[in-house]
Write a structure and sequence with these properties.
- The chain has 422 residues and is α+β, with helices and mostly antiparallel strands.
- The chain has two domains: 11-197 and 317-417, Aminopeptidase (3-Layer(aba) Sandwich); 200-314, Alpha-Beta Plaits.
- Helices cover 36% and strands 26% of the residues.
- The protein has twelve helices and 18 strands.
- It has helices at 4-7, 16-32, 41-53, 120-136, 158-164, 167-170, 224-242, 280-301, 322-336, 354-360, 374-382, 401-417, and strands spanning 57-62, 66-73, 78-84, 103-105, 111-113, 143-150, 176-186, 190-192, 195-198, 200-209, 213-214, 249-258, 264-265, 268-277, 308-315, 318-320, 341-343, 364-372.
- Strand 1 and strand 2 form a beta hairpin.
- Helix 2 runs antiparallel to helix 4 and helix 9 packs across helix 12 (401-417).
- It is elongated, with a radius of gyration of 23 Å.
- The structure holds zinc ion (ZN) (2 copies).
Length: 422
């Protein structure tokens, strides 16, 4: 896909071609040096150094490892561009020459493999590229550009950590907040929608209490394994029996743990589950149903104690502002051409990007940038096998470098420019 012709349409994008080799090196470097959530010191250092070199006022350590860059360039709107920086505790299996071999210590003290299997390395590179190009072309726009490199998106903590560290007090309030994510989709395309763009997510841990005994004497026990099994099955009825056909929710039990030996009935069992919803009312109902079923199953087993339900993490519903989205999509169509701007449904993925706009009361827009080789995507689509393409968080998630890299820089620049007067 040839994008070089279109890159000349905006003065800020004229130098993109010349910058690409540097950005490709940056991407490979960040990819091969991934850092776990709230440990992104190297990546943050690179972001800060690049922003400083581009002429931004830089504040580091916002929300532990977050970086904020401001480029004040006369009267005009303030536009905030956000990228997340953290990687995942996943063993990379892409086979790329620059694949991660990194391990790190997680907060439980375990040594874990680390890799950028959500593509936040691409987000860092896009924002580094877009800020440099916009800084170089500052004679062609007015306003304030605010670059935010955020920690710990994967744990749902980073946006809130920056907010709690005074983001809203220490920096100018933006007129719009823009962000983007690399996803499965033909590379060279962007996809957006007004309204809900990513789901609310709630992760819960449920501890069920029974009474352990010898496996040969179940009558002496209150078996938490059976209690947990019934609970897991009954939880499946929430989506199938309590959520209307016109509404949607996902409830996945990802962890079910009990016992250490086949002839010992354990004392307790652990369930960890994840809920995705696209509507505040549905979310409230689903969470209430979980609590009701968990307590009722424990009571049905004669549990000695009520189960403990604790929140592991929560991501807000991420809602794209109607007017701001229209402005971004029109700018995309003007730059990329209509064929490269795809519609999308809301993704059942979750993002803490929504916290910035939601809590600051600023319109925000979040969109997806395709990262799949267009030929591979077309073949999978024709074979009705799109579900088999490696998705974010898969150990084989590997966006094609080109044109994913240039497309995401272009989309960020073009969207920002939609608010910046000449
Ligand atoms: Zn992720
Ligand atoms: Zn992500």
């Amino acid at each position: 896909m040839n994008t070089t012709k279109q890159t000349s349409s905006d003065p800020a994008l004229r130098n993109l071609g010349a910058l690409l080799p540097d950005l490709a090196d940056l991407y490979k470097d960040v990819h091969s040096h991934p850092e776990l959530s709230m440990q992104e010191t190297r990546t943050a250092g690179i972001a800060a150094k690049r922003l400083t070199a581009a002429g931004f006022e830089v504040t580091s350590g916002v929300g532990k490892t977050g970086v904020v860059g401001l480029l004040r360039n006369g009267d005009g709107p303030t536009v905030m561009l956000r990228a997340d920086m953290d990687a995942l505790p996943v063993q990379e299996a892409t086979g790329l020459p620059y694949a991660s071999k990194v391990t790190a210590t997680d907060r439980d003290g375990n040594t874990v493999p680390v890799s950028h299997m959500c593509g936040h390395d691409m987000h860092v590179t896009w924002l580094a590229g877009a800020t440099k190009l916009l800084a170089e072309a500052r004679s062609s726009w007015r306003g304030t550009l605010m670059a935010v490199f955020q920690p710990a998106e994967e744990t749902g903590e980073g946006a809130q950590a920056m907010i709690d560290d005074g983001l809203f007090k220490r920096f100018p309030k933006p007129d719009v907040i823009l962000g983007q994510h690399v996803m499965v989709g033909p590379a060279g395309t962007v996809a957006g929608r007004a309204g809900a763009i990513t789901s609310a997510a709630d992760s819960l841990q449920i501890k069920l209490f029974g009474r352990g005994a010898h496996g040969s004497m179940p009558q002496a026990s209150i078996d938490p394994v059976v209690m947990a099994a019934s609970t897991v099955l009954r939880l499946q009825t929430i989506v199938s029996r309590e959520v209307a056909a016109t509404e949607s929710a996902v409830l996945t039990v990802g962890v079910l743990q009990a016992g250490t030996k086949e002839n010992v009935i354990p004392d307790d069992a652990i369930i960890k589950l994840n809920v995705r919803t696209f509507d505040a009312g549905v979310r409230t109902r689903v969470l209430a149903a979980i609590e009701r079923i968990v307590n009722a199953e424990a009571a049905a087993s004669g549990a000695p104690r009520k189960p403990e339900i604790t929140t592991i993490d929560h991501y807000p519903l991420n809602v794209n502002n109607q007017e701001a989205t229209q402005r971004v999509v029109e700018a995309f169509r003007g730059h990329f051409g209509a064929a490269r701007v795809r519609p999308t449904g809301p993704a059942p993925a979750s993002e803490d990007f929504g916290s910035f706009g939601g809590e600051w009361h600023v319109p925000s827009v979040f969109w997806f940038v395709g990262g799949t080789d267009p030929d591979v995507y077309a073949k999978a689509r024709d074979a009705n096998k799109l579900n088999e393409l490696p998705v974010n968080h898969s150990p084989k998630f590997a966006p094609v470098l080109h044109p994913t890299l240039e497309t995401g820089v272009e989309s960020l620049v073009v969207a920002a420019r939609a608010w910046m007067p000449a």
